[in-house]
Design a protein that fits this description.
It is built from two helices and five strands. By secondary structure, the protein is an alpha+beta fold. The chain has a five-stranded antiparallel beta sheet.
């Protein structure tokens, strides 16, 4: 993961692996998590899980909760 994108006060992206350009056999998903997710270590948890499963993408907080974009093989995404 490249690190944090500090482009604004409410935006904190954690980028995982490579960019989200899909290749043959690679799937991409967007996931929305709502509710209380700030201050509980949720983004670092997502990052660690993505690393373990060899997934690429990003995770960021916004006004609604957390938005996750992830890509990888179907089996890793299902896990």
């Amino acid at each position: 993961m490249a690190g944090l994108d500090r482009s604004g006060p409410r935006r904190r992206d954690l980028r995982m692996g490579a960019s989200l350009g899909t290749s043959l056999g690679t799937l991409a998903q967007r996931i929305r998590v709502t509710g209380v997710v700030q201050g509980v270590g949720f983004r670092p948890f997502v990052w660690r899980l993505a690393q373990e499963l060899s997934l690429a993408g990003w995770v960021r907080n916004d006004g609604l909760g957390v938005e996750i974009a992830v890509e990888g093989d179907a089996e890793q995404l299902a896990a």
